[in-house]
Design brief:
Layout lengths: L17 H13 L6 E6 L2 E6 L2 E2 L2 E5 L18 H18 L3 E3 L6 H11 L2 E4 L8 E3 L2 E3 L7 H18 L5 E6 L12 H4 L3 H26 L5 E6 L4 H7 L6 E4 L9 H8 L4 E6 L4 E2 L4 E2 L1 H17 L10 E6 L48 E6 L5 E5 L1 H10 L8 H9 L3 H10 L5
Parallel strand pairs: 4-5, 4-15, 5-6, 6-9, 9-10, 10-11, 11-12, 12-15
Antiparallel strand pairs: 1-2, 2-3, 7-8, 13-14, 16-17
Length: 438
């Protein structure tokens, strides 16, 4: 899905001086207040805990890409005052909605991870991509990674452990996650691979990938033993290989686009792996490929049913009990996703792939997934400070109500009633008229 980095105007802007930020960072460096993040398991299932308190991930995939920019845009190369304004705007919206964690494809510098945590109470997953979209190996950029190559494996391992070293004492880090659907990028070829039976080639390539993940986790634990480690897998593909070759996982991270719910994912993961599961990407686009129009209500309805499925499979709610939360893809629309280097000032409505699980605009044999329309918020123009605004969709309102629920504090019936009370039509009307919602 997403490759690189990708709120309400009334949010209060914080006027924190540059000196204040320096003091925050230097104080943390001198005496880091590292949170203890652990998993807990008993007969009722799995939970994530931070400092002994239950923690359900209520997250978004976050990035900041202005109009006329693409994946090459680097927020962290901008002036410090501008970075702070962007963060205060976006994370003010997130805090109001109940977000407690983000995942980002861009590497957020440690001082800003801490700033986000200390100012907004939002933690960050550090996600080294481990060559998913290419890597510098032996002084040369390699766009398609061969995970069987010895130098490549050594390079990816060393570079990833350096990232762990960089963040190991950073307040605000929830965990480390490696890769991004790397199992969908096993595209290299070699003489040895081509000599294998066709049916075995992909599995053997996967074995190289997951054994490397395991080696990296082992090496990372030597550097940062008090953190949790996972991978970001494409759905549950190769789960048998994961079980065999990646036993060091603390939890399973998965990107899953199955539609209105996650079908048998929880049960299948429990049967094979018996670990907690965090969804690192899921969601719905807000464009209806049938009608050719924005469809906020359809997107919001998918958010509602997806999170209801997640909460129902959380600890103590009578089902599988291995859901520990996830990250909705994504915070704000990215206008560069189609063609990536062209039409960067145009919100393209091209559907680049098809998925029958998204029934509201599915037509057999046609694409219906619009990459530039997955935002909880639409990308608006910049304000007087040059900060690009976010127009909340109905999905933002739905998620805000969901994220203010505690799946561990409510019993099964109470959760069902709470979700039933989230009226999408009511929220849509309120968003249209600018009134209050019930």
């Amino acid at each position: 899905m997403a490759i690189f980095n990708s709120g309400i105007s009334v949010c209060i802007r914080k006027s924190v001086s540059a000196l204040a930020l320096v003091l925050i960072v230097s104080t943390s460096a001198a005496s880091p207040a590292i949170d203890k993040v652990t998993t807990f398991n008993d007969e009722d299932g799995w939970k994530l805990q931070v400092n002994g308190e239950d923690y359900y991930i209520k997250g978004v995939v976050w990035g900041y890409t202005p109009k006329n920019e693409n994946y090459e845009y680097n927020l962290w190369g901008q002036p410090e005052d501008y970075i702070r304004k962007v963060i205060d705007y976006d994370f003010g919206m997130m805090k109001a909605a109940g977000v407690n964690t983000i995942r980002s494809f861009a590497t957020i510098p440690p001082e800003w991870v801490t700033y986000i945590y200390q100012e907004y109470g939002i933690m960050t997953v550090i996600n080294p991509l481990m060559g998913r979209y290419g890597h510098n190996v032996g002084g040369k950029w390699v766009p398609v990674i061969d995970y069987s190559d010895v130098l490549t494996r050594l390079t990816l391992k060393a570079d990833t452990v350096k990232q762990v070293e960089r963040y190991k004492d950073t307040p605000g880090v929830l965990m480390f996650a490696f890769g991004n659907e790397s199992n969908y990028g096993l595209s290299w070829s070699s003489y040895e691979i081509e000599n294998l039976p066709v049916g075995d080639q992909e599995t053997v390539k996967a074995m190289y990938l997951y054994s490397l993940f395991n080696d990296v986790i082992i090496a990372s634990r030597k550097v940062a033993p008090h953190h949790l480690y996972t991978i970001v897998n494409g759905d549950l593909q190769y789960i048998d290989v994961i079980v065999k070759l990646c036993p060091e996982l603390d939890l399973l991270g998965s990107n899953a686009y199955r539609g209105k719910n996650f079908t048998t994912l929880w049960k299948d993961a429990q049967k094979k792996l018996d670990l907690p599961v965090a969804l690192f990407e899921f969601g719905s686009d807000a464009f209806n490929a049938k009608t050719g129009e924005e469809d906020e209500a359809a997107q919001a309805n998918f958010f509602k049913t997806q999170w209801q499925d997640m909460y129902a499979n959380a600890y103590g709610n009578g089902r599988v009990g291995n859901s520990i939360g996830g990250f909705v893809f994504e915070w704000r629309d990215e206008w560069w996703k189609f063609r990536q280097t062209e039409n960067l000032d145009v919100h393209d409505d091209n559907a680049s792939w098809g998925n029958g699980g998204y029934s509201f605009d599915w037509i057999n044999g046609k694409n219906n997934m619009n990459e530039e329309w997955f935002g909880i918020n639409a990308l608006e123009d910049a304000d007087s400070d040059g900060v690009y605004l976010a127009r909340p969709r109905i999905g933002y309102d739905v998620l805000s109500r969901i994220w203010h629920l505690d799946p561990y504090a409510l019993d099964k019936k109470s959760l069902s009633r709470a979700f039933k009370a989230i009226d999408i039509d009511d929220l849509a009307e309120a968003r249209k008229t600018g009134g209050e919602t019930r």
